[in-house]
Amino acid sequence: MLAVTIYLPCLDDYKETFPDVESALTEPDGLLAFGGDLSPERIIKAYRSGIFPWFSEQDPILWWSPATRAVIEANQFSPSKSLRKHIRRNNLTVTLNQATEQVITLCASTRPIEETWITQEMINAYIELTKLGHCHSVEVWRNDTLIGGLYGIKLGQLFCGESMFSLESNASKVAFWYLCNHFAHVGGQLIDCQIMNPHLKKLGVSEVARSDFISLIKQLQSKPINTDFTPCTLELIEG
Fold it and tell me: Looking at the structure, do residues 219 and 104 belong to the same domain, yes or no?
């Protein structure tokens, strides 16, 4: 068997800039660079460039911009009949930015260790982004118990989703529904889900080419939403 050598730019040589996303590898799809750090400045620069960090505990920091991107327009989410019934039958409370650090930690701890990319280094980085007002979460509660949620980075009218979790059936779907509903209501346009998977596909997420995604984020990241993303209890707004 022939060994394959991959040559990647090291971000230590780029300071807080990144290589052109079109230089990303095709195999593995989207791998762009390695190294650097997870400073708030670098992470925000990455998102603004259509790039995200994704690596395992034993890896160096790896940066990705895949050839296709999983996205959904905020006003295009259509909940299934079963999800609507679930909301009506269950006494759940959904909040915004009430427990972001807890959501980040649970997104990491509820996955098998071999499946999670949310290392302690990543947890610390996104908690710092939370303190700086860049990272936001949606929380689903049954009474005083957090049973589901998601978190991500907001850049203007773009929300870059990072991860979600469920401790009860449908909890992450509820969080996603409320995120789409609220984000659309305040003027948000697009939710970036990074890489397609079966769960996202069931939620109505589709894929766009990297070049189209880059064009979209250039348009949306500097456009403000109608209100601050301040902590609150969320209600569904129909119509």
Answer: yes
